[in-house]
Amino acid sequence: MKVAVGMSGGVDSSTAAALLQENGHEVIGVTIVTHEGGLAETAALEAAEQLRIPLHVLDFRTVFKQEVIDSFAESYYRGETPNPCVLCNRKIKFGELLKQSHKLGADYLATGHYVRKMVDETSGRWLIQTGLDAKKDQSYVLYSLSQEQIAHALFPLGDYTKEQVRDLARNRKLTAADSSESQEICFIPDNNYAEYIRTAMGKDSEPGDFTDFSGRIIGRHRGLIHYTVGQRKGLGVTFGKPMFVASIDPVGNWVILGEGNDLYTDVLWATDLNWIALERLSDPLKVQAKIRYKANPAAAVLYPENNLVRVQFETPQRAVTPGQSVVFYDGPTVLGGGVIVSDKCGIRQDLLEAE
After folding, report:
1. Of these residues, 16, 44, 55, 88, which one is catalytic?
2. Residue 345, helix vs strand vs coil
3. I need a labelling partner for 65 at 20 to 30 A (CA). Which of 45, 200, 241, 303 fits?
4. Which domains does the chain have, with CATH numbers?
5. What pTM was computed for the model?
6. Catalytic residue at 186?
7. Is 85 one of the catalytic residues?
């Protein structure tokens, strides 16, 4: 079986390729150039040479800007806090890269994600489950994959911990064995989101007012792209007590501030839904829900409401943030997920109208 491996040159993708080789598969490497200044190409070439596999370097800068960067920036201007990795996995890695892998003759595309794939024997649906290493589990960013995408995906590292993967790489004398891990968004290595967004979109974010929940103006903000729900630092004003961003209103260009307790809510709404383990949600369903990548799953009940789902939590959640994904689990199994369109103040109608 011919397998294309998405190669970054890091320990995860290099070890995934080595394991597939040892299992008798014909392995080719595929590396994507997504933005200026990326170093993945050089590292991937070194890894491919070590493994003695061909490497195909694909220029995805145009499609990556269209599908990920522009969407990311526009979302910030709407007062959202998006997760570009979710978009990248659906549109780029398991979208365009999977298509190119098929054109290169590969049956499957493998990646170094820490997740597991299986099939539901009853429904016949492909499933994604959490990886063995709970600290490295990446199922949250793969909830938006289609059945067709999952069917042609392989995840060789799902049954290993990160340290086991490093040991596997060391035993094979891979130079990537002790490579460092990137913690930032790949195309914003300095984490200066606002400056990057201004440059990418060629426009600034208009200053406006800080308000409290009653609408009383309590200060001035620098522009919506500088803020996210739950933020305390960098507000640029002091109030004599800790204040946090509780809500963002792009229609009025307001940033609503509150105290710590004001950040909690026991309900959210989500749209742009994708179901993996289910064909659709037709009745209320008890789940565990994650409202951000590093959040702990929380008990909740899902209620279908037209094109939305209402998520009612057993205990209030802190800083529910529009633009982030909410992902639903049944134990280790990803049921599906969607994009949050509400915050402490309720549904953001402007986001529904923007769809």
Report:
1. 88
2. coil
3. 45
4. 2-178 (3.40.50.620), 205-258 (2.30.30.280), 262-354 (2.40.30.10)
5. 0.94
6. yes
7. no
